[in-house]
Amino acid sequence: MNAKQYLSRGFYLRSQIRDLDERIEQLRHRMSSVGAIRYDKVNVQSSPEDPMLANIAYLIEAEKKLVALEADLERVCSEIREKIDLMDDELLRTILLKRYVYNRSMRRIAKDLNYSFEWMRHLHVIALREFSKILCKTTHKNTSSCGIVVPSESILMSS
Q1: Where are the domains of the chain?
Q2: Which end of the chain is more exposed for a tag (fewer CB within 10 A), N or C?
Q3: 152/143 Cα distance (integer angstroms)
Q4: Are 120 and 135 in contact (CB under 8 A)?
């Protein structure tokens, strides 16, 4: 999993939560509305099950799943926040937090930080690169297995 995939897990969970929440609201609306009774037809009930009971059971299961997804989102955001907090550069850290934890658009982040959108995209790429190094160090403990070349201290000192 690369850095962007790791950070984007919250987007996917938020989308699932939004979709499930919409389905729950639609079901509640459907259950609360009263249907018309047609007296001109003969009412033959072929199944002994009450459709309202099936809807209530589905609603209960959907709400349990929603609670579980929200807990997953909180856990994932916490993991992401912990890894981002390991970054040295405060600006890059802020960009990633606003984007992936607080779900802000790049345009909104650029406006909040008083940067142009193009410069924010450039900084975002740099932030992802730096985060990729952190992610590699914390998951693999060996940067050579990640394909990231981190210069040694002696090279850094000579420049």
Answers
A1: 3-33+51-145
A2: C
A3: 12
A4: no
d(CA 22, CA 91): 36
- Predicted confidence (pLDDT) per residue in 56-106, tens digit: 888 899 999 999 999 999 999 999 999 999 999 999 999 999 999 999 999
| Integer CA distances (angstroms), 114 to 48, 99, 119, in order | 64, 15, 10
Is 96 in contact with 29 (CB distance < 8 Å)? no
Euclidean distance between CA atoms 59 and 27, whole angstroms? 7
Q: How far from 75 is each of 42, 61, 84, 124, CA to CA, in Å?
A: 54, 21, 14, 24
Rounded to 5 degrees, φ, ψ at 140 are: -105, -20
What span, in angstroms and rounded, lies between the C-alpha atoms of 112 and 19? 29
Contact 99, 109 (CB under 8 A): yes
